[in-house]
Amino acid sequence: MLQDEPPYKMLDVDTITQLWSKTYNTAGKPDWSHILPYYDENIIFRDSVQEIRGIVDFKTMTERLTARSQDLTMKVVRGVMQGNVIFIEWEMTISYKKYPSSVLYGSSRLTLNERGKIAEQRDYYDLWGDIFDNIPRFGRAYRKFMHKKFG
Questions:
Q1: Residue 72 phi/psi, 5° resolution?
Q2: Global pTM?
Q3: What does the alpha-carbon distance between residue 83 and residue 78 come to, in Å, rounded to a whole number?
Q4: Which of 2.40.50.140, 3.10.450.50, 3.20.20.450, 3.30.40.10 is the CATH number of 13-125?
Q5: Going by C-beta distance under 8 Å and a sequence separation of 6 or more, which residues neighbour residue 125?
Q6: Residue 105: φ, ψ to 5°
Q7: Residue 1 to residues 33, 37, 41, 44, 59: CA-CA distances in angstroms?
Q8: 27 Rama sector, left if φ>0, alpha if ψ -120 to 50, beta otherwise
Q9: Pair 40, 112: CB distance under 8 Å
């Protein structure tokens, strides 16, 4: 693995946009091989479902996502960088094997270490709401329930 080599170029919003937009479109299956060298071996990744520590477990997570999905596309809508933190807003379209495509709207905060690698990644999104919105009648009932209970 290329973990000890420095990244190919310094990470900034434009580079992240380029990398993320092609991560999910390799021969119909997601592929993270071109972006993994940008992650620190001690990466801390967290989203609304899990927390992962270390590049081995992070790579295993990407393999699980690949196995579950038919296709993934990622569109970076906008991003900003301040110091060693990159914040991006994105739209990810995921097609599961037995279900219709769903668009997940989210954002990621990427914290770079002194070597310019991603040391922490925190993803923010509403997994169930975005998926349920694509199920006829169920999505509306889910949103009504959420509004009644939490909003």
A1: -140, 140
A2: 0.79
A3: 17
A4: 3.10.450.50
A5: 47, 48, 104, 105, 106, 107
A6: -105, 125
A7: 9, 8, 10, 18, 11
A8: left
A9: no
d(CA 106, CA 91): 6
Cβ contacts of 3 within 8 Å, gap of 6 or more: 36, 37, 39, 41, 55
- Per-residue pLDDT for the chain (151 aa), expressed as one digit of tens each? 444 555 567 899 999 998 888 766 555 667 788 889 999 999 999 998 899 999 999 999 988 877 777 777 889 999 999 999 999 999 988 776 666 677 888 999 999 999 999 999 999 987 666 666 666 676 677 667 665 655 6
CA–CA distance, 42 with 119 (Å, rounded to integer): 7
Phi/psi region, residue 83 (left: phi>0; alpha: psi -120 to 50; beta: rest), is left
Per-residue tokens: 65: 């996502």
Q: Show the DSSP H helices in 10-150 as ranges.
A: 13-23, 55-68, 127-132, 138-150
Residue extents of the structural domains in the chain: 13-125
